[in-house]
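We emphasize that the prediction below concerns an isolated chain of 228 residues; any contacts that depend on oligomerization or on bound cofactors are therefore not represented. The input was used exactly as deposited, without trimming of termini.
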Amino acid sequence: MNRMRVLREAVRSKRPSPMGALWRGLLAGAAGAAAQSLLFKLKKAPEPTKVPPDLGKPEPEARGESSLETVARRAVEGLAQRGPLDKEAKGRLASAIHYAFGAAWGGLYGLLRESVAIPPPAFGALVWLASDNVLLPAFRVAAWPQHYRADEHRYALQAHLAYGAATAGAYALLRNLGPVPLRLIPAVLAMQAWAFVLRLPPARLLRRRQPWPKRIVQGVLVQRVAQA
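Result of the prediction step, given as a token string:
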């Protein structure tokens, strides 16, 4: 009887600490952002409404930019006072902002999930309502919702419902796995940092002095870690 009780206690899903819930939520939110990006690739977006600059993005540079690209340009050229971004760099930074924004909402979901039972569709709709209809217009990245057609709102809502479902599923998986995934994060970051160091000129020069079989093995490992 005691063994059965110990076994049930071991396999029972335990409630994480607030910090554990936050970290799991951040990872789950990034997974949700990946699911949202996949939906954007699989389902064609409706033709966007041409909003006048006085209702949306006021600067001329914003013409032809997505909302995330506008945020990326403003962050680099406006806040950081750096040189102008080319199209490729702007796209990479916009993608990073997309995942960071999704991770931030996921962190909030993780904290709420341990206190309130929030359904995934309701969470996705909440993110859509707060981000697309309040935050983006407030920062002049988009117009207010009444200036867009119903099919545009429907498409955006579907994307955020996919985000909410993927975030909730990833969080449930991370929650049931316990602290193991979180303990792997420092090791993954260390491997990425080591791969970056090995790509620097001094490390390349040092590798050239090593026997060629060892150079090949290290080169393959650096590529695999950098792509992970």
